[in-house]
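Supplementary Note 3. Input sequence used for the single-chain structure prediction.
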Amino acid sequence: MLRTKVEFRFKQDKKQSYVYCANHSSYLDIPTLCYSLSGYYLFIGKASLAKVPLFGYMFRNYYIAVDRHSKLSRYETMQKSMEAIDKKRSLAFFPEGTIPKNAGYQMIPFKDGAFRIAIEKQVPIVPVTIPFNWLILPDDGKYVPNRRLMKVIVHEPIETKGMTLDDVDALKDKTFDIIQRELIIQNKEVALV
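The predicted structure, written as discrete structure tokens, is reproduced below.
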């Protein structure tokens, strides 16, 4: 079992739906969020994950699948996501859409989906930083975990009330900056751990 530290920087309102947005650096990120977040939420993820052993089961029970190459699939995913929020569920996104080559240090630009949904449904975005999974289970094709502290930082929500779709880029940038800044801080400390 990996030592895990989950740091909440706000008190979750159990009656509130949230759109959680986390950096993506490892195949370990999905189970990490399942362990760390409370409440009922669904992941938004690429359809190909259904074929991965272990994740296939999780995918069918906790996911809304999207085929990013299909306009129809992207539309259906948006509709299902908004319906989930109407049912008082939260959503969890990895808005990078993939594990970047420089995972752990530098994120790649976020896709719009999570931010459009949060604004359309007027629910808060919650940035989530997962700083060390890239060290625990690197995306190197070996799938051999390294022992070290697993850490999750759940940042304060960013309110979307009053925002319009014209604010998508600003909301996306703010979320990106919070997570990226925390990645830099946490990974400076890696050498000290």
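The longest strand covers residues 41-46. The longest helix spans residues 168-188.
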